[in-house]
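ok posting inputs for the zinc ion job
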Amino acid sequence: MSPYSLQHDRRADRALLLALGALARLTGQYRPVVLRYHSIDPSRSRLSVSRENFAAQMDYLARAGFAVVPLAEAVAGGGKRRRVALTFDDGYRNNLAEAVPILEAHGFPVTFYIAPLLLDTLPRWAAPDQDGLRIMSHGELCELAARPGVTIGAHTLTHRRLDTLDADAAGDEIRGAKRELAALLGGEIDSFCYPHGAYTRETVALVRKWGYRSACTVAPGTALRLKSLFEICRVYVAPTMTLSEFAAALTVASDWRLAVRGEFRKVMTRVSDK
Ligand SMILES: [Zn+2]
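and the output
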């Protein structure tokens, strides 16, 4: 592994994204993008976006004329090129009070990925004093699911890493979440999201087998960069992301950046090998 990597230099990486974003916007290069959010709170944890930043991002989507569509529509062929879908992972309680009113004001559809056995808990990745990261209750989930434009997807039963489980245990997590959520909310649960973005080829086969129609990863880039509805890539919205970076990330610059980083790494590896 080369020590030279743009990935390790955040400033260079930001400058690269902005430059590529400017080029992409100038030349009108867009592909469908799925945005990945978690908690809407002011803590600036890596899972948090402030309400002010979130509101500004949604205003930007509306002002710039993006079609904010349900996930299934974003990844379907055809349609408008500048399509964006919104996703929230884990079901933090604050999503209902902080994100939903802003989304409803714009009429934007949204998908929430829920691990039903985590409902009403402080998840294991939150520190004891991070009560802002509490997961919503059963009642709150039912309230959320009834709001207009809201789709609920499955995030396994208990949010375990599926790449570490045998096929039976992984199957139970994948099938169990669908069954639990359908029993709680009624209707069909047909979208899935891999906890921690961890999956193998076997995991993908199990997700298909148990009747889901799509699955989201945490791989970066535009939605169909990996050309699979079961490996949808998403743009992570970091707490420190500026509105200019947000605008750049909604273009194919999201993919170009990865390609440039890869090329840069190859070149530097060759240089350092000499
Ligand atoms: Zn998660």
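notes: Residues 30-250 form a domain with the TIM Barrel fold (CATH 3.20.20.370). The mean pLDDT is 94.
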